[in-house]
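hi! just following up on the protien thing from before. the input was this:
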Amino acid sequence: MTDTPLKRDGRKENASNTQAALQLAALRWFSAQGYEKAPVGSICADANVTVGALYHHYGDKKGLFAAVVEQVDAQLVQQAANAQAAVISQGGTPWEAFLASIDTVLQAGANAPVRRLMLVEAPAVLGAQVWGEIRQRQGLGAMRASIDRLQARGILQGHDPERLARIVLGALYGAMDSLPADESDISVALADAKRCLVAMFEGLRRG
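and the predicted 3d structure came back as:
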């Protein structure tokens, strides 16, 4: 008997390629122009797809924006997870791994367009409910998982994990929001923001 090769589903591949192209193009336009000023026609032209394809896959411009925001948040979660794994693989402690993940996300926040996209436009465009659902699936969900792991190891004990996850993530977002728009000042601001966060989190650990 010979193995029968699996048939490729061309329609699914085409749909995935179209969505990937639209999200990449939309990220460029949303980052450069903001949500309101990013033209649907220009996004589609940049992605080399029809306007009809955008509406077919995402319903409207806001639906595409939601997908882009979720993708960016998911990428931040993955970068944070990679940072934690790298510290553990080098013999670091779970607490050191946690702080490395915080630093990784803070560093990503040094990118002003990403910062505006996630902290300003996402909640304003999508509204509290939709933005909250995305955060629950991505950043907040990942933070809750990190808190659960730390508490299982006897770290950050004595706090409600869901509340603590929201507080920690809120502090991280606040630190990102405090960064200056002028990139020439970013390194000093990043270092100061990191020191503030570590001091706060160390206080939670001791408490």
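The CA atoms of residues 3 and 9 lie 18 Å apart.
The chain is about 80% helix and 0% strand.
cheers
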